[in-house]
Amino acid sequence: MAVKKPAPKKTTASKPKPRTASKKSNRSLGEKVKWFFIKLFLWFFGLSIGSVIFFKYVPVPFTPLMVIRAIENKMGGKEVYFDHDWEPIDKISMNLQKAVIASEDGTFLYHNGFDFKALQKAYKSNERGRRIRGGSTISQQTAKNVFLWQGKSYFRKGLEAYFTVLIEVIWGKERIMEVYLNSIEMGDGVYGAYAATEHWYRRDASSLTAMQAAGIAAILPNPRKFKATGSSSYINRRKERIVREMRAVGKINYNGK
């Protein structure tokens, strides 16, 4: 009698486990975030370089500081006073150009945007607990005034360094000085050489004497507190020192030739 063999067991091939939806969505989200930041950086570099090129030829109409000061005065219940007119550098007294170099940045004509010796001195002075002092050059101040906000964070300082390099490369020294003298705060609601000379001396920016130019430069650390005329003894001493240092500046040659 034939013995019936048992039927072989059916074996099923193991199917690969389908990827979960969460893994797909995580990878998709990660790629979206990566591309978002890549696009953000590209937009930032494009807009920042484009704006620096644009303001190489076009007068700067206003700065973030002007807007901030107007908001502060409005919220403080003060009169919102704003005086700012653009003046080409060839119509701004050479005395004022020398005065701000003597007062703010003695190596302006020679550095590439940063005065590392001044930064080191400022760091040591602040570390010893003395009155906080800065080591910013005219180039750094211009970059901050035109493109950024006020503040002391490392992020803002990093952006300041970036824009300083851009304006040094794209603008050059003469344009930096022109923009600086047209955008710097020179009184409460007073911005730029044209408005400042009219406000303090009732004359045009091209006819400033050495002492008058030194008076404007002397108040730049705090132009809303100090006065260029009817000054305190502290400001008068600063004026005299600046006039002496203006002689050491000598002839200004922005082309470096």
From TrEMBL:
This protein's superkingdom?
Answer: Bacteria
EC number, as in UniProt: 2.4.99.28
Q: Which residues cross the membrane?
A: 36-58
What main location does UniProt list? Answer: membrane
> Any idea where the Glycosyl transferase family domain is?
83-246
UniProt-listed Gene3D superfamilies: Biosynthetic peptidoglycan transglycosylase-like
Record-linked PANTHER family: BIOSYNTHETIC PEPTIDOGLYCAN TRANSGLYCOSYLASE, MONOFUNCTIONAL BIOSYNTHETIC PEPTIDOGLYCAN TRANSGLYCOSYLASE
Q: What is this protein called?
A: Biosynthetic peptidoglycan transglycosylase
* Provenance organism: Flavobacterium circumlabens
